[in-house]
Protein 1
Amino acid sequence: MAGPMKSQKPGAKPKNLVKTFSRILGYIAENKPLLIVVILGITISAGAQVAGTSMLKRVIDQYLEPMLKSYSSELMAGFLKTILLMAGIYLLGALSSYMYSRLMLMISTKSLYRIRTDLFRKMESLPIKYFDTHTHGELMSRYTNDTDAIREMLSNSVANVISSAITVTGVFTMMVIYSWQLTIVVICMLFISLNAIKFIGGRSSRYFMKQQQNIGKVNGYIEEMMEGQKVVKVFCHEEVAKDEFNQLNEALCEASTNANTYANVLMPIMGNLSHIQYAVTAIVGSILTINGILTLGTVISFLQFTRNFTQPITQISQQFNAVLTALAGAERIFELIDENPEEDHGYVTLVNAKENSDGSLTEVEDRTGIWAWKHPHKDGTTTYTRVRGAVEFDDVVFGYEDNKTILRNISLYAKPGQKIAFVGSTGAGKTTITNLINRFYDVPDGRIRYDGININKIKKPDLRRSMAMVLQDTHLFTGTIMDNIRYGKMDATEEEVLAAAKLANADSFIKHLPKGYETQITGDGANLSQGQRQLLAIARAAVADPPVLILDEATSSIDTRTEALIEKGMDSLMQGRTVFVIAHRLSTVRNSNAIMVLENGEIIERGDHNELIAQKGKYYQLYTGMFELS
């Protein structure tokens, strides 16, 4: 498994520019027909600009100058035809420019669609460890800031850079053809301009990087304050929050001011340098014309070429920072896409089965209420083991980091239909055990068996489909209450959803909502109380109808009255199922078949409620209030 991805600061330069750009080109190349038309359009547009300018020499030398000496209808007719031809060429260039701009927008949209799709697909295939080591804001920035930078580059920068490069090449060629002497003057002035771009652009780029970093800090702080407004107000922290925000905002303002100052200064400086170049070129050109070395038309056309030469170079310099920012963002996206997906070498699958008269099992397509593990063997045979929910830990050692052990030599056995409870202080390893049952993490030492099968042999989706989990932090999705309960079993009928809600005692409060089961949930269930949200989570687990249930503080946000009301329903839900319960409220685990007391990653006591009370050990202290859970 790949290690945690090193986050690249927003606005940082890409580490491998060529490789990153080639990967972006791979996405663009999927629209080859459109791309060919775009390149053709850019070439025509740039070519039209060069061709139109070059015709000035013909207009002046062949028509205007002769007509100043002696007017004739033939010269006027030729002059008008040439002007119309120039207009046609410029019109063709304008239409080509419009066409490739629109097509490039389509290409960028389609390319971003593919990038987002690949990004989301990879995200969904990543292990839980990845999300435990990366913040949500860090991941969201890939979908927002980084993709937006790529969009800007693809829709504007790429086409502008290609167009400018073709224009510069064409114009420079014509300048050399028209006058090598004036071309030397332009090159000398260009050298000065490029050094100005390097000096000013380098400082602008540095401050733009700081601006991006400070934007991230400000946005992160605002998001944090929005989520914690209740805490801010309860502890009267408003003024401190304002001061902290002002400091971050001032840093952003300073960086933005410096960045935009240099960026805005660049254009006037480049503009004035181009004016100086134009004036110097005009003076030198006039001298050459007076001495009969160049024609008037040549000088005028050349002067126009100098305009067409400096403008694209300025455009390229303007796009440089945008391209670098986009490539840095693309590199961050590709780093995530290149992350190793969750490994799964399991080959045992979960299937529907029916029981034969001799007690054997046969695989069937329809849901029968009987599940079996389909276990193919090396000799070509396949065995079917009924899913009963027997879970065994055999000397399991585990740590999230190599140098820090969380669980030490954990051994336990949960028989089918038993309720096993884990109690202990925060950090004792209770939730870690349930994470290992789900194979969110794999154990380096020891064995975990499910119905006698090593869970490493079971495919992860099939293993998790045989379980349902109710977490302390309930997450509800945008949609109706019916949809959220059905999340536990996507093909559940309306009757099954209603039965699950009644079982969890959620039906009564749901019916009192404005639209009942069709009530829309938004903002992770912000319109519901914490207890109501947990009831929905329990109903979601109930509709899944799995052989194993994991309840991680499932009733922590439910008051004692509601807890008593749903206790019978929960008992019905647990009937015939193996249940793992994590609870700080010890009243919820009294009826467990076995209670495991954990301390520092080890099971220090085990037994049922009465046995542990009789031992008068840690559980006795916890239950009688002599020692509080922390």
Protein 2
Amino acid sequence: MQDQHNIHQSNYSAFAKILLVSTLVVGVPACSTLPKQFPQPIQNAFDINTSTTSLAKIIEPLREKNKNLTGYHVLYDPLEALAARIHLIDRAEKTLDLQYYIWDNDKIGALALHSIINAADRGVKVRLLVDDNNAKSMEGIYLALDQHPNISVKLYNPYRFRHYRAMDMVLDLKRINRRMHNKSFIVDNQLALIGGRNMSNQYYNVSDNYQFSDVDVILAGAASDEIIHSFDEYWNDDYAYPVKQLVNPRHYTLRYDGLKQQLEQHYQEVTVQNYLDLAYRSQAFEQWLNNNIQFDWVRAEVVSDSPSKIKSKASKEEHLNFQLLNRLEEPAKSVDIISAYFVPEKQGTEKLSELAKSGVHVRVLTNSFKANDVPVVHAFYSKYRQELLDNHVQLYEFLHAPLQTNLYENTEELSNRAKVKLKGLSRSSLHAKLMAIDEKQVFIGSFNFDPRSSYLNSEIGVLLNSPSLARTVHQTMDTNLPKYAYKLVLDSKNNINWRLKKEDGSIETLRKEPKLKWYKKAALKFVSWLPLEGFM
């Protein structure tokens, strides 16, 4: 499969197009463009017995010792995150259930598909559910993949006009603007992986443009079962369409045999093998899983949106943000929030300000303007900075290009061996979604702290009652924030300054927003006045 510079069109970047189209058709009555759905058989993960798999023999005894608890293992390093996924696909014996917002036609997407086909050839039943918003360049591949008797592919909340998608935006904007943003990866009904990473180069340190800094968590036990049930809920929802029902095979020449051959050729390429060697170098994940598996077992709760949210029919109890707020303990000492897209709105700003004024140490890490891959979001985040800082909330903005000394230790080797441009490896964008409360609770998931995640998209996450993980998050931020982020402070005139720790240890203070030209600043200011915040 040929590599492509296929930078995804997220909801946020597509939003500008939606607005443009919608302004051209004021007065056109809204109507549903949802394709006709045919009856589908109900399929549930636990219909297939996976109790005899090798993973079950590892996980089930641990579950017996830790009844009603959840074991977790956090994946911070992008190479480990990729190694975990490929290894788990290769380890699958009965089932693979995969749910993603983005699956790109690039090195990472092809590597995963190569392993998935091998798994299906072994008899593994594969269900792949992908949101249709970014599926246009992949629909021919999905159609070919679906020809395998053990692989089923569905697209969620599809466009009817496959090659003229702007028509769906014109006629059915309310539906099209809501997307399935969930990411879940389930193997033999034993392990479930969730977090912020999609299947695309940027999430695994192999993009020539920039890398996303992200985090995932592998779960076993009670939370894993809840994630499996959530996947089934989406898979059996009437917005999940078999790809063969949507995509006309006459529009694509690629068939399963040709796809398999392309994927095998891609897999054999030297640069791909070099990249895999780096990912597997220490065999750390395989050894952890097979020889010295050590989950931390804690009380945990999965919080997730119902598919009804996409249809604007979910009750408040079916919204992730409602569930999360009702399960969080009241902070007494500290709150750390990491969110790629952070738009707290008035209510969130007031709550964080109240906490900070009461003596709680509140820190927020989000993207700086230059690091943000969706600049329009920055317009609505920046509206709240002054008030947050006035009320002693600490704000940090992620650097788009960390200092050379703070890059991953294998950056140069990765560039040389996997033929990834060093410039791309040295450019970063924050994509993680994580929160720690005191030394008590940690949230990890796909949910950004913004209106889009709260009200429009569907999301999933897990709330872990883990003092040790909460301490790790707080300590990691203590150590790493000066390396990777500007600290925002108010000067004597109450203006925002940006402080940066330089390589020699000195502090540089910038009185103008870094990497933001005056005309872009003016444009963002104008955008922030528009009644669009609820779409961010």
Protein 3
Amino acid sequence: MTESVSLLVSGIPAEIVREIGLRIRDVVISEFANAQQMGDAAARGEARLVLLSDTLPVEDSVEVARRAKDANDDVRIAYVISMQQAETALRALKEIHVDRFFLSPVDTEEMLRELAKMGGVDVLPPHASHGEHIAAAVVAAWDRTRASTLEKIDKLDDAAIALLDNGLSTDLRAVAQREAQDIAKVAAQFGFQKGERVARELADRFAHGSLTPIDGVAISKQLLSLRESLVGAPSPPSALQQPTGSSPAESALPTSTASGAVSDDFSLEGRRILVVDDEPMISRGLTTLLGKRGMAVTAVNDPLRFWTALDETKPNLILLDLEMPRISGTELCRVVRSDSRWSELPVIFLTGHTDQASVQRVFAAGADDYVGKPFVPAELLMRIENRLNGVKARRAPVETDPLTGLPIAHKATEQIDRFLRLARRKSDPYSIAVLQVDAFASLASTFGRGTGDVVLRAIGELLPKSFRAEDIVGWWGGADFTIGMYGCTKEYAAIKLTQVLSKIADQNFLSEDGRRVHVACSGGVSQYQTDGDSVTAMREAALKALEQVRATGGVRTTGGVVRIGISGLKAMGPMTRRVDVAIVDDDTALVSLLQHAMESRNLRVATFADGEIAVAALTGTPPEVQASIILLGVDIPALNGLDVLRRLKTGEITRSSSVVMLTSRTGERDVLAALELGAADHIAKPFSVPVLMHKVRAMLRQSQA
């Protein structure tokens, strides 16, 4: 009788644990809810396998693994890490030896195969009763997931309603995009193919291009279709199918490769190839072979260095071994396919396993092709040529930088160009601002490569929140960002950019070793027609102003110096836009009426539809806007009027600005609350605009006296 294999498990989804119990022969699973219990069991030395997950704190996993190894040298440790956090987890787990890594979302067949190999037992084939168990597990999992999925659709409904009201904020749009992406993943996981397709279409809608209320109608119809598509019983995603009579390799190869010859009109010179193979002899041979054709080859023998090599090399193609220690080639291929930066990167497997099951594995992981070992050099070169020659034709252009989440240069340029045409027709001002992180290159050498990514990601999140929905924020590579601002002179653009750069300079970033890091930024602005008639010309003018101001000093903040250069003007310090009246209310019809009435009487006006944005603009250091009078609504988004008033009082704004509350709340209690917080007056809605204008003029005369 075969000896049973003891497997300790923690932090693994119930469906996968059940699959392990059904499919691996002679395995006895002990599942634990916490690391302490698991560590106690591991310390008894009876386990042959330990399966951990990054859902547990890293220090707990390290402690469990140590206790298991101390008790039994033969115990094997497996660890499940998320693809997005793989590099971080690998660094944290250097203290212990992990025999095999699996990447989440887990390829169950890959896990079963490797766990069985580690335990020296067999994997059982699926059978009828097993299929019933799987179906039951899928239904149970869907029952747990369905409610949260429908809640995500409710959030998409909120976005559609906001769009129909022409009030879709940047934040709500970003939330809608993320929720749609999450719904697509869940729908794919549970076999709702139509739901997956509709959700991905919705994610694309919210991610790209401008949206109008007309789009809101179409999105509402799609949401109805999405809800309908998730009705009924779920099913596991279907397995990869191959056409009858052909092997996976044959179906993956284009017919034009039949001749076996490398075409003369296609050059491989300069193409970057990443080779990942744990056999140094193989990688050295490939380096020599491909180098003779002018290719730049980077060879990696430790598969755990894959992430670093991929980021540093930015290859045009990957040659990947199938069987490697600690993590398999199929797992690494899934990393590539799951990352939007590399998802279209050609991957060719080099493997001595050419049986049907192995070939099925590589194509299920997302491989483009495979070549058996030992390989024929001419055949390998032909496969590489075919993949590189066809990649440009089939790859859609990348439009968003995955690190910052911002449109890249060519996409942002297209969007700004549309506004430039509108500005030309309407004779409106348009400005471009360029933002750069100072001494960015030294961040990696001083604080670690990941610190630079942390800074760029934070800036990518901050910029869209700091500008209006009609402003275009784009990433131009490295630490270079560009913002297009419609209806803004370059002087006003400089005011806004000063505020943003001050926020960045005041932030604390954490380095990889836990040190606090501050970064300083410089900026330059230029204006359409005054400084250039195209995005390129305006950027050049803004960059020139940026470089000139870097040598002249700037605005001192907690984190450093903020420098803003204005094209055609001498470098200036902080600037504040001074207005007669600031209107804070989300009633667009009322605000439009008041703004027209005031501007027609030559009063300078600033408007805010959001309480948080108003507070940020009015209380900054220096403030973006300084108003003699603030007309403040009560029921406004993000931050209600009384909370706004409370913040204004804390910032001592009520000493220099008269605040008038505009509200339908006429109860004595509400009026007293506003007056106690520093309001100068209280006007009940609906009100007479002429009467309000009379009060405004009187208050302005009083402030000027």
Protein 4
Amino acid sequence: MSSIPQRTEVPAADRWDLSTLYTDDQQWEADLKRLGEYEQRIAAYRGRLAESADTLVEYLRLSVEVGTLEERLGYYAMLRQSEDAGDSDNQSRFGRFMQVSSRVSTAMSFFAPELQQIPDERIQQLRSDPRLEEFAVTLDKVLRYRPYTLGPQEEKLLAMQEEANQTASKAFGALVDVDMDFGTVDTPEGPRPLSQSSFGSLLEHRDRDVRKRTFEQFYEHYDGHRNTLAALLGGSVQLDVYRSRVRGFSSAREARLFPDRVPESVYDNLIATVREHLPLLHRYYGIRARALGLPDLAVYDTRVSLVPELTVDTPYEEAVETVADALAPLGDEYVDTLRGGLLNGWVDRYENRGKRSGAFSAGSYVGDPYILMNYKRDTIRDMFTLAHEGGHSMHSWYSVRNNPFQHYSYTIFEAEVASTFNEQLLMHHLLDRHPDGAMRTYLLSKHLEDMIGTLFRQTMFAEFEHLIHRAVEDGDALTVDSLRATYRSLIEAYFGPDVQLPDLLTLEGLRIPHFYRSFYVYKYATGISAAIGLSRRVLEGGDTERNDYFAFLKSGGSRYPIDSLRLAGVDMEEPEPIRVAMDVFRQRLDQLESALGTPREY
């Protein structure tokens, strides 16, 4: 396609079919009006939750009714906005939904604090009513916060601070995404703009001088703002520590892991086990250096492709069939459902003007689990993206069909497992189809690079977060020099002694947006570890192992993530899943070394 089409030029067959949410905009408008009318009905229950089981049941059933409608309205508005953000009707629809949703959410905000203030004896009396059994998960999750909930006035003050608490994150985003101008980089093909999005692709350029200048020019701009960036990150860390102490948690990390009921030992096991296997990562960089013919591999050489001559051309429909073939071990229901959805209305397939970039899956209780793609047939990565988002969608599909609305929604901790699991099966399938040649070398290097980015790198980020939060909790100040020194110690450990690490790289710790949503990145590392272990278990097992995996997909939000993953067959409280992932990494290293013909030097 020579130009990016307008939305109106995209064939209907290439768009998602949102009629499972709403058949037309008028139906959506009627429901938006209906949602607004719930505000008064909700308010009538304020201060009354403890009066009787009848009242509590009525309110909980009303909240399900409201939540189901609000989610349906919100997903439709978000999906329409995502398909063309420049359309004024889409902008208006989403804005009006947010206004009504905000009012309704405010009206419902009394529920958790009021429930938590009901005395234990009265709670037990209310919960003896069998009608409340269907809400047991909801009640348990809310009441679990009781020891960390303050009085009404203190909670009100904390709530009033929420907008101000976003200042560091918003300022960071404005600085790095808007105010910082990285200029252009001269390449043999001509000048190319340097930006947050183009930085990665320029580091894949075949010309080493282009890669070096890209790296230096990019980080020199960060160096010019290092004091501001350090102050913003330090302020965000101090806020995390303050909030955890106000609520009575022992640390900021404990507070952030509490909602998912993840023990801190999971975090520590991850870091310890990855560190134990860092020699494998160092070996990879040695293989890369020899394959590129570089005696002095630098950090800006770690992303350039090892198979530059590879070209692919995979039409969307062919990609769907390849993904379906790869997922055959999951059985006919899974494969037929996903194939049907990918070909018939779940997916908005290709780029159009105004469409959101990237990809996502948006599953809701009502309607199909839709997928946004910007599929390109000339990159195999988009086939893996399709498998990944299909994993999210099928997770939602099974969760909806096996849970009531109030606890069908699963956590990010679990979501990353279901999506990455599909990528593992696809990789296994493609490697079987390509026993040799350039495609096999590409696939092996891609698998290793994905594991480095998701397992090793995110663990390094998680370790950095833990160290800088602990420093503040121990009474130390975070400065430019202390942050860079901490990061230097980590990159030296993770990259090893044979990779050149320019001092500018110590600024990387100041440019990661996830750090403003603290103690989040470790979930990527645990997710890929669980997915690798489970995919191997399913591929090597039989009906029992497959059924265990489906028990996980069907559990939705009815269990905490550690418990739901145990259903599938992995225990994330133990280091074994990380070790299994490292064993796969070692196998892929051996295979890549053989494919490249670059044996180790002894």
